[in-house]
Amino acid sequence: MRKERMPAPIRLRELIRTIRTARTQAEEREMIQKECAAIRSSFREEDNTYRCRNVAKLLYMHMLGYPAHFGQLECLKLIASQKFTDKRIGYLGAMLLLDERQDVHLLMTNCIKNDLNHSTQYVQGLALCTLGCMGSSEMCRDLAGEVEKLLKTSNSYLRKKAALCAVHVIRKVPELMEMFLPATKNLLNEKNHGVLHTSVVLLTEMCERSPDMLAHFRKLVPQLVRILKNLIMSGYSPEHDVSGISDPFLQVRILRLLRILGRNDDDSSEAMNDILAQVATNTETSKNVGNAILYETVLTIMDIKSESGLRVLAINILGRFLLNNDKNIRYVALTSLLKTVQTDHNAVQRHRSTIVDCLKDLDVSIKRRAMELSFALVNGNNVRGMMKELLYFLDSCEPEFKADCASGIFLAAEKYAPSKRWHIDTIMRVLTTAGSYVRDDAVPNLIQLITNSVEMHAYTVQRLYKAILGDYSQQPLVQVASWCIGEYGDLLVSGQCEEEEPIQVTEDEVLDILESVLISNMSASVTRGYALTAIMKLSTRFTCTVNRIKKVVSIYGSSIDVELQQRAVEYNALFKKYDHMRPALLERMPVMEKATTNGPTEIVQTNGETEPAVLETKPPPTGLQPTSQANDLLDLLGGNDITPVIPTAPTSKPASAGGELLDLLGDLNITGSPVSAPAPAPQISQPPFLLDGLSSQPLFNDIAAGIPSITAYSKNGLKIDFTFERSNTNPSVTVITIQASNSTELDMTDFVFQAAVPKTFQLQLLSPSSSVIPAFNSGTITQVIKVLNPQKQQLRMRIKLTYNHKGSAMQDLAEVNNFPPQSWQ
Fold first, then answer.
1. pLDDT tens track for 96-127
2. DSSP-based three-state secondary structure for 241
3. Does the pTM of the predicted model rise above 0.70?
4. Cα(192)–Cα(239) distance, integer angstroms
5. What is the largest CA-CA distance in the chain?
6. How far apart are alpha carbons 641 and 181 in whole angstroms?
7. Is 631 helix (H, G, I), strand (E, B) or coil?
8. SS3 assignment for 641-691
9. Which residues, in sequence order, are CB contacts of 714 under 8 Å at separation 6+?
10. Angle formed at CA 160 by CA 159 and CA 166, multiple of 5 degrees
11. What are the GAE domain coordinates in residue numbering (predicted)?
12. pLDDT of 556-587, one tens digit each?
């Protein structure tokens, strides 16, 4: 019987028209399924006549998101065909339907190799495009030789495709990079812009991947400069002109390559300074094409070792970008200025007014970048004007900006406040405007500032009293006001304010305000606690209203709020049983010392000004237990080659801890005589603090962010990570922050971390943030270690960990030897 032939399938154009007539997704899906069934049947029939048409339709369905994997082998059959039209659809299908995750792609290797040696350049071009798009590392190894041959050919059509294919080969198999080195010698002599463009892309890839290639290609800087000069000085060329600029794509690529070649190299940077100045001054800025070139020029100037005048020119270009109507250009300018503000602060300051104007932009992205840059520009000279603008911005900005803006104002005011009164007024303005959005530490910080400003107490309590009259919506403001009224209520009633006209307030009016806070629906539990404590304090400041205060306190002894109830019961006890002690217990708070958040060091940014960073450290206790504990730790690394730990705060560990540590180390080879129990150690003089002499400079270098972190310990669900910072003025000091996390289902309690280093180092272990590591990685303990390494020797450390877990005491020793070289070199 003769086999009946299937009818001719519909054309691709007809399929597209049919699918577009579908009114619903279900209708479209039905059409696609019907056509896919017909295509499958055709593939089973081995119909060579319409295979090309069917694969083309399949690719269209793939673009619409429907599965088309069953056409992969048909693509290979088309590639093996001798017809160019078949090969074109086959290679297109291979690029879309195949990748290196499917083994079937390896079947193409021989076809591609044959086509790379084909007599027709267009077939060779198809093979190069496919290899450069989806070639796996195995294919690249097998076919790199053919690509390298085509890179040397005189045919510019093939050379540009071969250069891009070589980029893909290098990305997949970096060790083949040297194979292409001889072929790159004459690439930049090509007149064809397409070849030039792809050649620059290839050189860029090689320089980024290999320091040796980077050094080798630095000699090409004069040639690249000459090409770029010809581009900007040449007249109108219709085949390369884009909006009046000659081949901007090639210019941008050359500028990127120059940026890589000139980075950290004085000679190369010197050779390109003049051409960068010419590009910056001669490029037309009325069209977006010119702005793209100028932006690349700015990035190159900022990244190489350019002259100061050239850097100012680059920042002025960014300043002009800020005046552009295009929002994208304004955003790019703000982002770039934010990156350069620390190195070229004064040049960026000249554009301060334009930057501040961007705070009024309607685009939220531009507004956020402008806010960040404005804070970076604040210094002691402009703090009043900048704070005025930022406070105005805080008044009118969207809620999502208020928290970051308030935090930034607090930090800037703390660093650059011209006077304490200005500082207090600024923070009170923030609390009045955005009190509900400030960080949790804003209230204690402001209380501390007010306490330490003794001469401003009367002024501050009067301002706060007026600020909360009838408005309790800003809870942080009400908390600070309640605290100050309780502390300095006598100054408020006496009217002793000299800074502004005093107001006449009676004791009853003050108590009315605090009672209103207590009963207000807007008051949080914490705020009510502040108000009740303030009322209690006033019992020793006021004379006529003590009985009223007793009544208020007794009422809250039965409050449903447990915190308020406890306070009220205790205060009632003060009135009844311990009244003779009440004046002493409720006397005015002394001046508070500011505790640093992360040990005795703080990161200080001066924004263009030189300001000393004052560091205060508490001397270690000289009692028996800390001394013996530090000395017991001497044996961790063996014998006399150890330096003691310098404790910075008293520890709660019992005195026997050192003896237990020695027992634990009894099986180690420790030079020196063994010790069975910790003997009473004599009083030792405190070693000099290892950060002495650094107090007049910013401590940490932002570049240290590049030091990789390490995992020092990971066992039984406990993981200890080390992150590193380096001193800005003394490179011998390394600050290590440990982070301990717990992946088990139960908390780890009574956690103690101990460390010791060889004697050539000095080590200081600060107090941990907690002694409990929460379960399920829901929190971490942080602790800071400072290591002085004057001889720049490789860092090594022995650590001991003790903690309680699942009802049993755990302890373990570990040695850390994998410190990254950047942390100690």
1. 888 777 677 777 888 888 889 988 899 999 99
2. strand
3. no
4. 11
5. 121
6. 52
7. helix
8. CEECEEECCCCCCCCCHHHHHHHHCCCCCCCCCCCCCCCCCCCCCCCCCCC
9. 720
10. 85
11. 705-820
12. 888 888 989 999 999 999 888 888 888 888 88
